[in-house]
Amino acid sequence: VEGSRYVTLFDTFQIRRESVTFRRDTELSTPICTYCVNFFALDCCVDSWDSLQVSSVKIHYSNLEEWVGVKGFEFVDPMEDRKKKEVNVKYVYREPISFSLPYEGVSARFFFSLQPFSYEVFPKYIHLEHSSYLLITSSQPKNLSEFQEFIYRMQSLIIIALYQDTYIDFFEFQLEGNGKWSRFYFHKGKRDPKPLRDIWRMLFNYWDVKDWFDKLVTEWFSLCDRIDNILPLFIDQFINESRFDANKFLNMAQAAE
Length: 257
Known about the structure:
Elements: E1 7-18, E2 23-24, E3 27-28, E4 32-42, E5 53-61, H1 64-68, E6 73-75, H2 78-84, E7 89-91, E8 97-100, E9 106-114, E10 130-143, H3 144-162, E11 168-175, E12 181-186, H4 213-223, H5 231-239, H6 248-256
Antiparallel strand pairs: 1-4, 2-3, 4-12, 5-10, 5-11, 6-7, 8-9, 9-10, 11-12
């Protein structure tokens, strides 16, 4: 059908079932079932997760540009603009930041872009949106689950660096032999994005480790398997920050130890 799109649901389970609510003579209503979908892919139709062979992924983390410390918009002179009753905003296209991953044929870059917009003769409004994402590319197609490992390891590093929760808004993947990008979304419930800490309250940001960021990422990806047992214990304190946990301090102390 024209305008329709493929959707693939992953990890779906029933969370509630309501019995028949209407009965008249021989007519019965249909029982209502409520399902939860943990993941779904848009513009992609596959039979199984393992069949997804991917060459590139774009990961959109929340608070990524704040951690990297790159902004696109700049106010030219706010005080002077007030005097002139004008608003002057400048957008600067930033160069990508490249770094290596400790896997053969796999490279990564932070990209910064301005979403496409249209020029009108008499615009009522102008919507300009700056976005940042991490692009991971492999010279050889890999199963999506392998890329998922890269995605979560990088997310864990950013959570520790920010010293607060950050999550994946969505990621895009490019199937082998198909030039189109498909999107993969995660179920996040009713979670609202929290205001980001001031940059001086982060454990560290990109510019703090810029000169040895390659080495940091290489060692993190190579060695984080050694702390797999305590990493969830540490990160859980940020992911479930609103939940009461009597052992929170003990868990943090044990993770540090």
